[in-house]
Amino acid sequence: MRPYRGALWRGIVRVSYLYLVIAIFAEVLATSFLKQAEGLTRLVPSLVSMSAYLVALYFLSLTLRTIPTGIVYAIWSGVGIVLIATVAWVFQGQKLDTPAVAGMGLVIAGIVVMNLFSKAGAS
After folding, report:
1. Between the chain's N and C termini, which has fewer beta carbons within 10 Å?
2. Cα–Cα distances in Å, from 34 out to 17, 50, 57, 58, 88?
3. pLDDT bucket at 50, cuts 50 / 70 / 90
4. Is the pLDDT score of 28 beyond 60?
5. Distance (Å, whole) CA 96 – CA 100
6. Cα 107 to Cα 19, 37, 39, 77, distances in angstroms
7. Is 74 a member of any domain?
């Protein structure tokens, strides 16, 4: 049973989603720097990557205080997949073919369906 009700609870949940956004962007930054770290053999990219992962995990843990794990992980992984693929395409020259783009579209559609229609996230 949740300890708060009404507007206060909605505000807390909104802040939790902000924490999730921060966690996702930190994880995308960390994963993007792994390529430049070359197996953690280059100091600066390795430190950026490890630091960003720590930030990501911290904010993810804050998110899990109020939003169910399944919902958080679906959003975290789905949005992360799309953002990391986009970063790799724009900054690292990775090619994205039609099936890859379609697959990412399905991931996003799944997240939307889960958040709009599933009772799993209801508190």
Report:
1. N
2. 26, 9, 16, 19, 11
3. very high
4. yes
5. 6
6. 21, 28, 29, 9
7. yes
Tokens of 99: 């099936």
53: confidence class by pLDDT, cuts 50, 70, 90: very high
In a domain, 106, yes or no: yes
Residue-number span of the structural domain to which 71 is assigned: 6-117
DSSP 9-28: HHHHHHHHHHHHHHHHHHHH
* Residue 24 CB contacts under 8 Å (≥ 6 apart), including other chains: 56, 75, 76, 79, 80, 83
The token pair at 42 is 């280059």
Question: What's residue 1's pLDDT?
Answer: 43
* 44 occurs within a structural domain: yes
- Other Cβ atoms less than 10 A from the Cβ of 49: the count is 21
Task: Record the pTM.
Answer: 0.81
User: What is the domain count for the chain?
Assistant: 1
